[in-house]
Amino acid sequence: MKKNIKEYIDDSVFNFIKKVTQFVNPILLKLNNENGNLLVYYFHGIYENEAQKKLNHVDPQNNLTKTQLIAFIDYFLSNNYQFIKPEQISEGLPKDKKYILLTFDDGYFNNTLAIDILNKYKIPATFFLTTKNIVKQESFWWDVIFKYRIKNHVPLKKIREEQSFLKGFKYSFIDNYISENFGSSATKPWSDIDRPLTVEELRTISQNSLVTIGNHTHNHTILTVYDREEIKDQFHRSNEILCDITGYKPKFIAFPNGNFNFEILEECKEEGFNITFSTIEKSNRLPIKFNSAVMNLNRLMTQTNDINVYGNYDRLGYTAQSLYLKLKHSIKIFK
Ligand SMILES: [Zn+2]
What letter would DSSP give residue 196? Predict the structure, then answer.
């Protein structure tokens, strides 16, 4: 398919930023004092190997293989980053060190592959769970769209458009859309790659002292689409289920799709969340300041390219993608 002129300019600008940052980042890293830096990363699924990825049972979403996850951990260990739990942020982190916090969103069973690695390295991580999928043993709606459309040779661009379109609606609309378009049993998982954790599996991993369990709402609701009562209900339902399974009420939440606003932060405080996790692609500088009485942390998405290249971007607090979006945003303002 031929690119239009706008897509061509977009790609060229992005590639230019990528090239410049690849050259400049190592120099800046030498000059930059990283102490007082807190990097928070979010992962979705983990693959056993590249062959699993090729099965297209889940939307890849920058999912890493086990080997890539090990390389990721090695990279930050060798750069003297300290892996921490969110509880340590509430207690206050000394500013003379650099920190990293790993988070896994949604509640995929395949995250247990990561737990074996965390155990080996004795590294903590936080898992944000969508409780409806766990309780009902349903795969996630974006994966349903991805795997069925890919199977029918729909171009990736079209799949992304369909997924983005649905993100503007409430879960009841999305649920209907999925069953109307893919059949009533479409959310039945295809394998261990796309299935969520079971209640029993979640109970087991929650007992691991390296694991912190956090809220990711009950229905993976994009909170900005809902009113305050519905938001309260989503937080509360999910917290009750998680408390039943794990024995404790989560103190942390990751916003599905990263969407939040002032009212949502206020509601988080009411529910007892003291740290919230967004998807603003930046690092965090210590001390973390309060925003509407909660600490709202920026998170970087993992990349599948070579850690020794992209790790440099992230340690400086930006990615080529985040710089590109910033530039696009500034151009819009000045237009
Ligand atoms: Zn999510």
Answer: B
Domain that includes residue 199, residue range: 35-139+189-334
Report the separation in Å between the CA atom of 289 and the middle of ligand 1, taken as the mean of its atom positions.
Answer: 25
107: left (phi over 0), alpha (psi -120 to 50) or beta: left
Q: For 52-85, write each residue's pLDDT tens digit.
A: 999 999 998 889 999 999 999 999 999 999 999 9
What CATH number should be reported for the domain holding residue 289? 3.20.20.370
Task: Report CA(19)–ligand 1 centroid distance (Å).
Answer: 31
The pTM assigned to this predicted structure is: 0.91
Ligand 1 centre from 139 Cα, in Å?
Answer: 12
Gap from CA of 142 to ligand 1 centroid (Å): 10
For residue 190, the CA-to-ligand 1 centroid distance in Å is 19
Torsion of CA 200, 203, 206, 209, to 10 degrees: -100
- Going from the Cα of 12 to the center of ligand 1, the distance in angstroms, rounded, reads 30
Residue 235 lies in a domain: yes
Q: Measured in angstroms, how far is the CA atom of residue 5 from the centroid of ligand 1?
A: 33
Distance (angstroms) between ligand 1 centre and the Cα of 105 equals: 5
DSSP output for 195-238: PBPPHHHHHHHHTSTTEEEEE--SS---GGGS-HHHHHHHHHHH
Residues of the chain with pLDDT > 90, as a percent, come to 75
Considering its fold, how many domains does the chain have in total? 1
In this structure, of 110-114, 218-222, 230-234, 291-295, the range with the lowest mean pLDDT score is: 291-295
In a domain, 286, yes or no: yes
Alpha carbon of 217 to ligand 1 centroid (Å): 9
Q: pLDDT tens for residues 1-59?
A: 556 888 888 888 889 988 888 888 888 888 888 899 999 999 999 999 999 999 999 99
* Residue 88 resides in a domain: yes
Beta-carbon count within 10 A of 136 CB? 9
- The answer as to whether 148 is a domain residue is no
